[in-house]
Design brief:
single chain; mainly alpha
Length: 113
């Protein structure tokens, strides 16, 4: 699960950075505000790469997904990109757990043989 989720989070890291570049063009937003919010979100992406397998890591990932979707109020394309990354996050968690279970079954079978 860690590999799939971390890959999704790294992709989000870059998308958030590019969204910050787009948001900078909005005259109503200060550059400091844009980069503070984007910087915190980008840092959370990197932090979650290490925390995804710990208790609460997946829930924090879901909170980040909701934040990305909400960023659509500032940069409208983020509604679409946030939804796409939420779908990727779901797939990463769902199929990552299945892969982890299969690896555990294989290791148990190999250990008993």
């Amino acid at each position: 699960m860690r590999t799939l989720c971390s890959s999704t989070l790294i992709g989000e890291f870059f998308v958030i950075g590019f969204a910050g570049l787009v948001a900078m063009k909005d005259a109503d937003l200060s550059m400091g505000t844009v980069w503070t919010v984007c910087g915190i979100a980008m840092f959370l992406c990197l932090l979650l790469c290490g925390l995804v397998t710990r208790p609460g890591g997946v829930a924090l990932g879901w909170a980040l997904q909701l934040g990305l979707i909400a960023a659509g109020f500032v940069v409208p394309i983020m509604f679409f990109l946030g939804a796409m990354f939420a779908a990727l996050w779901w797939a990463s968690v769902h199929f990552g757990r299945k892969v982890d279970e299969a690896k555990a079954r294989f290791a148990a079978q190999a250990g008993s043989a």
